[in-house]
Design a protein that fits this description.
With 569 residues, the protein is α/β, with parallel strands linked by helices. It is built from 20 helices and 15 strands. The strands form 3 sheets. The chain has a 9-stranded mixed beta sheet, sandwiched between helices. It has a 3-stranded antiparallel beta sheet with strand order 10-12-11. A 3-stranded antiparallel beta sheet has the order 13-15-14. It is globular, with a radius of gyration of 30 Å. Residues 370-412 have low confidence and may be disordered.
């Protein structure tokens, strides 16, 4: 059993280990991870450098270490790509599968895309206590101006895991050699500090920020004063939540293979290596493995050679080959034509609504001028135009029947500046969702094209009125809810599923939806879904349907599909 000089209670809360390169912060993290694995605590290590694989072997490399699954990297048990984040998170969030997610050598865009999907799914699916270890966390929670939208999403999820993860049972242990580069919200969400040697003033300032936000600045003076002369195995440990420290502690060496030090180019494979049962993992990630193999250059060259051999042996294509190719081309062109037609209809609808709003505003402006010459008193809360009609005819006007927008809420008490067109539909959709909604999904929910100038005009007007907030993900504000008035909330349970079935209508999308609903909570292979929906899984129409259903948040997955848990919450 690995022994630690810090209380076990400190590991039941978020921990941040900070120190310059070579200060031993990763070694201290390795020691903590060994302790967690000894206690059989579900643990996942996110490794952006690719040097945690030594956990699977003993210190001398001759005996087995810990039976952890390695996703990705040179020592992988299971291949990994940037689209596998949600799949891996599902495995991490359930059961007890200690693992390393090796992202070493990945491009920044790939790593960012993976972490967004991974963190979002982990937050949603985590059931029961488990630890998430993030090495070099500044790669995922960077401090400073964020210019890339995806980087902003990654930062959002890293901070959300730190600020709200404990409520899900998730405890984070993180480390960084660049304390000044770790986002302040993430840093101050950690209750325990392990501070190793740092020299640069900005790095010391980052540790001072933690002390000022989480501990006693008076006690912290000694910590800050000694940071520059700490030995590699030493660190100040401070956990105010459990009344421990600050205490300067010497950490022993971890007991597994030291994969943090540079490995010789001709280093032989370690004799000792912990084996793990990969059957369930490989089944879950079958589609990911297939995609990784499909993109492997060696496999591609082999397949190309085989195809060339078959082509040479077969000779010219048969009439059946030509007919099949013609059919595939027809299906693809038909799908593109339908997509273009839908885009045109959407544009015409938006132009019509824009013109209608313009006429309504002109009418109201004219009415306002007339009212300045002959003021009309509001009668029983009615609008001036209604009171004017009552005064002229002596009878109250018959109000027009409230029109329903896209099967949702009738207009009931909505503010005049919202109208009955696209802006109203946007506010209804955001109110029904009750959470930040990305623009693509909002476009699908409202039937409006997010690529049109009218869409941008609607959003700009709603922001200026203070009715919505956000950029990539939009939310309705309290002022927006007040201006919208009453609306029909989305149903729950079986009624929610029936609502979406009616919304999808008698279409291929509904057939796909029904197939994944029937299979829930299990995944179902794409080919089986396509067969049930009488569609070709290789057609453009199929791809379009899946894209829209994913965009609406109704299904998830790639090779295997599954109904969203939100439908059954």
């Amino acid at each position: 059993m690995t022994k630690l000089a810090i209380p076990d209670a400190a590991l039941a809360q978020h921990v941040i280990a900070l120190g310059k390169t070579g200060s031993g912060k990763s070694s201290k993290l390795r020691l903590i991870v060994e302790k967690l694995l000894d206690l059989q605590v579900p643990t996942c290590i996110v490794d952006p450098k690719g040097d945690w694989w030594g956990l699977k072997s003993s210190a001398d490399g001759k005996h087995a270490g810990y039976p952890v699954v390695i996703f990705g990297g040179e020592h992988c048990d299971v291949p990994l790509n940037s689209h596998a984040g949600a799949h891996v998170a599902e495995l991490v969030a359930t059961g007890n599968r200690p693992c390393i997610v090796d992202l070493g050598g990945w491009m920044i865009g790939e790593r960012t895309r993976f972490f967004i999907d991974f963190a979002a799914a982990l937050f949603r699916l985590t059931r029961g206590p488990r630890h998430l270890v993030i090495d070099e966390v500044h790669n995922f929670a960077p401090q400073g101006k964020v210019l890339d939208p995806d980087a902003g999403k990654m930062l959002h999820w890293a901070n959300r895991l730190a600020s709200e993860g404990r409520g899900k049972g998730l405890t984070i242990i993180a480390a960084s050699q660049r304390p000044q580069k770790v986002h302040k919200d993430f840093l101050t969400s950690c209750e325990t500090l392990i501070a190793g040697r740092v020299i640069h003033k900005l790095d010391r300032d980052a540790i001072r920020d933690w002390i000022d936000g989480c501990a006693d600045p008076t006690l912290g003076k000694q910590v800050l004063g000694e940071l520059a002369n700490m030995k590699r195995n030493e660190a100040w440990v401070w956990s105010p939540e459990i009344d421990f420290g600050p205490e300067r502690i010497a950490f022993p060496m971890f007991k597994t293979f030291d994969s943090f030090q540079p490995q010789a180019a001709d280093a032989a494979k370690l004799k000792g290596w912990a084996e793990v049962d990969l059957e369930e993992v490989k089944t879950k990630l079958a589609a990911v493995v297939a995609e990784a193999e499909a993109n492997d250059p060696a496999v591609l060259r082999k397949q190309l050679a085989e195809l060339q051999r078959q082509l040479k042996a077969k000779g010219a294509p048969t009439p059946e080959d030509l007919k099949a190719a013609e059919q595939r081309g027809f299906e693809r062109s038909n799908a593109l034509a339908i997509e273009a037609q839908n885009a045109l209809l959407s544009k015409l609808q938006l132009d019509f609504e824009s013109a209608l709003d313009g006429l309504r505003k002109a009418f109201l402006a004219t009415l306002g001028g007339a009212r300045s010459e002959n003021p009309v008193r509001r009668v029983e809360g009615r609008r001036p135009a209604e009171a004017f009609q009552e005064r002229r005819t002596g009878t109250a006007p018959s109000l027009p029947r409230a029109r329903q927008i896209d099967g949702r809420a009738p207009i009931n008490g909505a503010s005049e500046d919202i109208g009955s067109g696209g802006k109203h539909r946007i506010l209804v959709a955001l109110a029904q969702q009750g959470r930040p909604t990305d623009q693509r999904r909002l476009s699908l929910l409202t039937g409006l094209s997010s690529r049109s100038g009218t869409w941008s005009t609607y959003l700009s007007s709603l922001r200026q009125s203070g009715y919505i907030e956000g950029r990539e993900a939009l939310s309705i504000t309290p002022a927006g809810l007040a201006a919208l008035g009453s609306f029909e909330p989305l149903p729950t349970g079986p009624e929610l599923i029936e609502y979406w079935r009616r919304r999808l209508g008698e279409s291929g999308k509904r057939a796909i939806f029904d197939a994944v609903i029937d299979a829930y909570p299990s995944h179902i292979d794409q080919e089986a879904v396509a067969s049930a929906a009488s569609l070709s899984a290789r057609s453009g129409t199929w791809s379009t349907y899946l894209s829209e259903l994913r965009g609406l948040g109704l299904i998830e997955g790639r090779g295997e599909l599954r109904a969203s848990e939100d439908l059954f919450a």
